[in-house]
Amino acid sequence: MKIIMGQNNMISETYEVHKSEELGRYLIAARDLSPGDVVLTELPLVFGPKAMFDPEASMPCVGCYKPVFTDVGERCSSCGWPVCSGHCPGLKDPRHHGVECAILSARPECVLDNMAEYYRHDALLPLRCVLLQHTEPDKWKNLLELQSHMECRTPGTEIFDEANEFIVEYLMNSFINKLDNSIKNKYLKEISEDLLHVMCGIIDTNALEIRLPDGAELNALYSTTCLMEHSCIPNTKHLFKISTKDSNNFYRITVKAVIPIAKGNHIATMYSHALWGTQARRQHLKETKYFSCKCQRCSDPTELGTYLSAMKCFGDDKGPCDGIHLPEDPLDEETEWACSKCPIKVNNSQINMLISQMGEEVENVQMLGGSVNMLENILCRLSTFLHPNHYHLYSIKHSLVQLYGRQASYMSEEILDKKIKMCKDLICITKTLDPGNARLSLYSAVLHHELHSALLVKSQKAKSDGTIKTVEEIKPFLEEAKGSLDIALLTLRDDVEETSGKKLFKVIEESKKDFEKFCKEKNINV
Ligand SMILES: C[S@@+](CC[C@H](N)C(=O)[O-])C[C@H]1O[C@@H](n2cnc3c(N)ncnc32)[C@H](O)[C@@H]1O
């Protein structure tokens, strides 16, 4: 894509880079963009493995990030870090392990216990960042222009102290301070604790997460994509090239418009979770990206009419009324939540505490495997306090619809009807929050797939008088099921490059074949 340097901004055919006091640099559309239009595509400046949260998990190979069995597996012959094989091509590739190996070799010993502390894979990306000054000076210049928010990351803050202990001191004490001057002068002319802190700030502010098919997760920095501002109603989606066959295109990112973006409008992505309520999203953005989101969704107490954060009336001594609590000013952290029908008000901190406790309960149930019984119990309990569209209930219902109608004991007409209603309600919320499937395509595809399956099972059920449904009676169910399957596949069209998108796409394609076979056998034309 052609990029022309302007006086104050850079202009391409699809976007312009602008700057403001509030947003820093951001992108606007240089022409009208339609859904599916490519806004930009670029290779990463640098990438590296993410932190491993589970010390028991297998470590990623430093050359290709495939999980390696460290107790029996091989080690890099120079630095001793775990690798999938001594012949892994990534070991020599400067974008992967090729250059960092010279630095990591400064610590010659090789241990087998307490390995997660010894081989800190999350320190590799900051190291690869500083090594760009030697390997790719142009990229180094670009990287230094990215925002680091060092003004907020001062000594004594949790984020600074963590980065200091786990990344900066680890890199300095284990490797950099042990380097021969000749190696240091060759690779790291500019190096200091402060510079490593800036790298940590740049990574935390800008990095995008890439999930690889083997389960490993990488962080990557991109010079233009990282300029996109956040909106809780994003108008773009990004996809990564993760196939390792084409090494010239490793982790190429492509940003596409998902809804029409008129010339001059801001081009935005989403840094937070689309299915969290406003308070949770804003708190997350404040803590991790240091700004207070004021987008249309955050400013609207009903979150675009979805009521995703709404609570039922808390009531007084006489009990609750049938009103709902919404924040009076969702952009104010001290806001009160007023009932729509009675004078009861509850303060924001109380609501936040309750919601986060409920969130933990929901998470626990889901981590325990969430049987239908467990999910129905928690749904029933939380429904006393939460609006039916609340995001905690969305999450429980999304799990339930994948169990209803699929197990012998949950196939009754009543359960199928319940499943159909839940799917339709959740589809409606999902569509409102993410009309272009920028972030919720997998959720949406699952819902459409489940809706199809409930309709299909229902079409085959005998009627209440025990007689079989006629073709004319079956047809409307099948037509709706087919439409739902087609939407599910269409929803995933951009996700097939990615592991979970590809898997789901295949499952739904199989369902479509079964569906067509069923229609053919019954001689029903839909
Ligand atoms: C990934 S960077 C985006 C590029 C950045 N503006 C720059 O100039 O390098 C993320 C930072 O941009 C700013 N930002 C992004 N979206 C914003 C928004 N909706 N409102 C306010 N600031 C925003 C915040 O400072 C945030 O930490």
TrEMBL record:
InterPro entries: SET_dom (IPR001214), SET_dom_sf (IPR046341), SET_SmydA-8 (IPR053010). PROSITE patterns: SET (PS50280). Residues 13-272 form the SET domain. It comes from the Eukaryota. CDD domains: SET_SMYD. Coiled coil: none annotated. SUPFAM superfamilies: SET domain. Pfam families: SET. Gene3D superfamilies: 1.10.220.160, 6.10.140.2220, SET domain (2.170.270.10). This is SET domain-containing protein SmydA-8 isoform X1.
